[in-house]
Amino acid sequence: MKDGIHPEYKKATITCACGNIVETRTTTGDFSVDICANCHPYYTGKQKLIDSAGRVERFRRKYQGLDLEKMAQKK
What is residue 30's predicted lDDT score, i.e. its pLDDT? Predict the structure, then answer.
C-alpha cells in the first residue's frame, strides 16, 4: 500500500435516538443515527405500528364483522 494516500481511520462513537451507543472505527468521526439494530422492528421482532390519520381504526371498523379466515380459504 502506498503511504500518504489513505484516510485516517480513528475511533468513533455512534449514538442512536433510543440511547444505544456503539464504539467503532471510521474515517468520518462521531455521528448519530435515528434507528439501530437494538430498536429496529426487523431485528427485535417488535412491530412498531404508526397510525396515520386513523387508518388502522378505519380498517378494523370496515372488517369488524367479517370472518377473514374463511374468506382467505375460499381463494
Answer: 92
Check the CA dihedral 64-69-71-75 and report its sign.
positive
CA distances for 68 relative to 64, 65, 72, angstroms: 9, 9, 6
- Are 16 and 43 in contact by the 8 Å Cβ rule? The answer is no
Q: What is the pLDDT of residues 14-63, one digit of tens each?
A: 999 888 899 999 998 898 988 887 877 666 666 666 656 777 778 888 88
Say whether pLDDT at 11 is over 90: yes
The architecture of the domain spanning 10-70 is Irregular (4.10)
Integer angstrom CA distances of residue 29 from 18, 20, 21, 60: 20, 17, 14, 47
Q: What is the spatial distance between Cα 49 and Cα 44, in angstroms, rounded to a whole number?
A: 14
